[in-house]
Records
---
Amino acid sequence: NSVVLPNTFFLPDAIKKHQKSLSAWFSNQPNEERQFGPSFSLDAVHVDPVIRESSLEQILKPSPDLTIQHQLQQPCRRVISLQNLFDVDACGRQVKNVVLYGTVGTGKSTLIKKLVVDWCHGLLPRFELVIPFSCEDLSHSHVPISLRRLITKKYQHLRDVVPLLGSSNLKVLFILNGLERLNLDFRLAGTELCCDANEPVPPSAIVVNLLRKYLLPEASIIVTTRPSAVRRIPGKYVGRYAEICGFSDTNLQKLYFQLRLSQPGCDGENNVASRSGEQDNLVEMLSRNLERQNQIAAACFLPSYCWLVCTTLHFLYFTRTVPPSQTLSGIYTSFLRLNFSGEVLDSTDPTKISMMKYVAKTVGKLAHEGVMSRKTSFTEEDLQQCFEVEMKTESELNQLEVFRSDVFRFFLTPCVQPGKEHTFVFTIPAMQEYLAALYVVLGEKKTLMQKVGKEVSEIIGKVSEDAAVVLSIISKVLPLRFLPVLFNLLKMFPRFFSRLSGKGRDTIARTMAEELFKEEDYYNDDVLDQINSSILGVEGPMRHPDEAADDEVFELFPIFMGGILSRRNRAILEQLGCSIKNLAAFEIAKAMKKTVIRNSRKGLPPSELMDYLFFLHEFQNERFTAEAVRSLRTINLSSVKMTPLKCSVLASVIGSTNHEVEELNLTSCNLDSSSLRTLFPILLRCKFLHLQLNSLGPDACKEIRDLLLHDKCAVNNLR
């Protein structure tokens, strides 16, 4: 009898090339990740989330509570590691198909990346060949194609391996990432049986027959999906269900922060001792805040929010370039892109509404109403009023069901404050202000007449006398009895409605200016200090539960409104299905200019002036900033803790013009020699300069000497 050697014995080069290619592709990190330094890699910082074995009965069983705490109170569910997903089940049966599911932000895609990279490095010896597919890519094609052609089209170096598929000697794992993108039909009438890897069929039919075990029955398959799509695969085709439960243990959160914030080069500094000390201090403060069971611990249940916390801390503590390379609104926009890029709320719904657009319309409305009423916690009744009050069709109800199942916990979480356990808060406080800003800037907050004006002005630009088109669109927002009046207006005043829609932009500009200069916020900390406190906590005695809370502060709301209008953020939001036109951004800036500049001349308190400068940085509009800054002749930032980031913002914003500054007051601002170097070009232009009561040691003498001896120095009086 002849001995049949494993196929990999004959084809080691092809599989090694495949491993090398996959490793390079799946190890590649998006731009947002590269800010952690050149040494950052998936292997160096990955922390596996908790994975719990589940069952179809548990998935289909109506949950009395959609909260994160409900997930944590399920001790009976067995924890299983990624490497053991294909172990035999409780009945001793071999598992071939695994469904790995989790809500948005639990880390499904990152987990798959790690799985593939581990196999490439020889850490998954159970499989000789791993073939990953993106269900998003598969959903874009309906042209019949054979499985073998599909594989070689994506992985050309496997063309010599593909003919061996179907051999019992080759242990193959197919990875199907993002099954919710595919609308699968397991009925024989909907998808015919196919057992031939050479037969061309639609990509969705390939997936169905792989899961049926009719095509390559010996292959193992791992499917990732959101909870709402789990039931699309009949239970008889699934050997194991496993739910990604995030970082349910605060020790996992601490480990994640330790790895992320301790990366060499994270702060861009060469001083190793200084870098290490500051990073260790950040990790220690963050750990103490997590141990207090603060709201941030509930947020960091989701690995995605751990990423946001680290990125925000990186921005607050390690920004030293002028101008700063990041904006806070840019971080939040990028965060949403990482989690929602290309995501459709429900692939089975004909509208194919983008998930982010749906969030902006619904959660954004809740966020905005909360900001306007100075409210951060919401009851179930509040949620129903926001999400369900306008539900009219079956499609809208289905969309809401998918949202509650897949996305709700990403934005809203139970309040941990005693006495408020049955209310919900935004997972990260600043996210409420960001979504409220997005809701307003997108123009979702409109009166009926503004809605009509928008619709009609768009029609006038596209059609002339097509009454049928006019009727079909306008009838959505006006009763039929008003249509004759409407057509008369169209004939008499064709520009009336375009002017009406323009008033919406004036309203946005006025809202932004009013919120930016609210007098009741004048004696709060500046927004950067507020963000820092929300993440790292406030050292000192805890407030008694019965003690009245301070008034809610929403000073980031107008700053985010400006930041969202920046060109870069609008481009990213466009990818997410949230379109803000160039003309709209221009008109909002134009309408806002007079109000903002007039208010800035009133003489703002130091912390509010810092917020105003930060707003101008976030807005990323050089012409607007230059005009606004020319009116600032006296700049009083006394007692504002000038971190490296604030120094960079001040240098960047004031540096947008060359005008002389009559007086710059930096008394008691925690300045050091490094701060002086950052601010040097600005200090040169100041006539009266206050630097007293700062941490300026002997090393600052050189900086001050160089300043005073500079041939362009305008300083007449130095204190």
Note: The first strand starts at residue 51 and ends at 54.
---
Amino acid sequence: MIKSIEISQLCVGMYVHSLPGGWTAHPFLRNRFLITNRAEIAKIVDAGFTHLEIDVAKGCDIVAVTPALVEETEAVSDAAPPEVALTPVSSRAGTASLSDELGRARALIAQASRLVQDLAQDVRLGKVIQLDRVEPAVEGIVDSITRNPNALLVLLQLKKKDDYTFLHSVSVCALLVAFCRFMGMPGEVTYQAGLGGLLHDIGKAEVPDAILNKPGRLTPEEFEVIKAHPKDGHAILARVAGLSSIALDITLRHHERCDGNGYPEGLSGPEISDLAKMAAVVDVYDAITSERCYHQGMPPAQALSRMLEWSKTQLSDEHVRAFIRCIGIFPSGSLVRLASGRLGVVTAQNPNNLLAPVVNVFFHTRSNTYIPPEQVDLSAPGIAERERIVCAECPDTWRVDPHRFLEIG
């Protein structure tokens, strides 16, 4: 399907079907190509185009707030919670503001990332992981999510491809803790799930770096090596005294898929535990939103849209929908464009309306200039009637860093 879009809507992963003016009007060798990095977007912007055509059958679609998205959002919001939920909690307001928690969250991320690196090195040396080394990091992450559910998750979006291997484990831990808390799970279950999240990829310590960090497509033989990491991780963690069955299950089965096409056991549907299904959801979300050696990350809203498609086959539909209710259609840290033309970064969710979060606006697209930062609650009376999110934006399109404006005032 061919679609005409504004240049401001162009994102990594889209397939350019045609540029105005033919090949002589732009710096590319072809008129049709896949956008693989942010530098290509910058070249298109510099060429002065205002619109182009994309082929959504060959690449990503835009994430705009259309009537269909509104309808889908209402369906997500109204969906019955999965059986694993005790009392789903639409909002667990923390005790700390985002600005207060960001500093603590930065320190936690650095600590947990170093720990994951050290644990991987220990595994390579044949050492047994000591649980008392891991527990403080998970406790810190649980405490941070409890104080403010946004700080850690926003900062973990910023990881670069060189940091991915270790920060991915920290991200999965934080996302899974937030997801479990949202679902109203007991504190001990949430904590054990966090342990599983932090350790879920420990089996990759036995995968050669040349395969793990290969920028090109893996050979079938190399992919078989990668596919061994859940079983390898389970074997490594089975030697850890005191580790729960929850953490072992998450490690072994986070790559299982509901249609039976996952690994290592090819389980399907009810054969997979709810926590393993939840771990699969957060693992996929972090993987596709992260910059990696072989692809650029998708904007969060676009990733959630793609995951809704996958929930028809591979991922658990009920858990994908619950996860969207947890982090929002436009997760905190997302760059969005409002109807007024202003750009802003999402800083908090409105549990009663996923399309109306709290946004810190800082840039105007019509004048292409920064404006005095202002916090806008899109659900507030008087604002909801005149201001709304039009679409998610790619920061590189406007050459802005939205995370500079997480704290204003």
Note: Residues 23 and 239 are 60 Å apart (CA to CA).
---
Amino acid sequence: MQVYFDTSIGLSKKGRPCKVRQDTDAVFTEGGLTRCVPTVYCFKQGIIFDILTVVEETDMVEYFEKYKGWEKIADSLSDTQVQKIMQENPYQNVAIKGIWLNGEKEQDISFCSTGYLPLVREEKSRSMIRVIRAAYSDYLAEGACFFCQRVCVKTKQDFTACTLSSIRLEVDRKHKIYVLDEETSAAPGEEGCMQFIHPLTHVRHRVYIYDAKKLDAPGVFDGRLEYSLATAEIVPGLRKDEQLKFGASMSCMASGKKKGAVSIVGGQSGPVSVFFAGRKTEQKSRYGGDMQPCFSKPYWKEERESMSGKFCLTGLECLVEEEQIIDLFPDERPDGQERRGGSV
């Protein structure tokens, strides 16, 4: 397989193809799935390696059948509901947080991925899948449902001229989201309250919303957009590494682009996403519980009477797996033999 120093797994030919590779035959378990890194492709600019993951086809079929057509109703779902649907996908990329090559942490890392699902037959991807399957035939059985995550690391060191003796991956923590659907209102000087049953402990928690402050985004949408920032206090407190999720997003259409105190993605008569950042000053709790800042649903000024100060509790996020350190291969092979490598 000809590999170019480009994140894309496609068949585009940019620059010169790899001439030096180093076989690793690394196998590890992450996220409950067996992963494999067969080979590292070495370039003067850096390295590229593919993470292969074989997934049971029946699991993928069940997932697609369960959520068939969900994209058509995505606008009516909360961010938490969408996140839960994505999390239930049997395949997940390895969430690489950091990479060390020969003990040196690298900063310039990029990713992309593709896969083969027998139930989804896209004509344009068949040739690419055939190339990947042929290149890694020792690892991918004919007809197997698999995914390939390509990792591109730009380095100062030229690994075509020196030996790559170790690759260490730092994998980010994993969380699981549980969908909740509660709502309350809290205007400045008022207090709102809602409650939910913890999906794991079955303990009833109350969520108090207070110290609400009305804010606006003067540089966005002609200053028509408003929202509230408040304190949420959970009684009794949650377990360590658990936090509540609040629905604070909106969908809208807008033309033109304006800069302001919030981040805008989109414009030119297309969909727009707005992201708020806020921080509450430290304060004493009213009820002896855990506190966290929260945003209300954003709204237009003309909707102030009906929408102002609405806080929507959409989910509970729980830590399910700590950060993981994975050594793709140690500095020395246990059998004392040299690692395979050579020209491509």
Note: Residues 253-273, 331-344 have pLDDT under 50 and may be disordered.
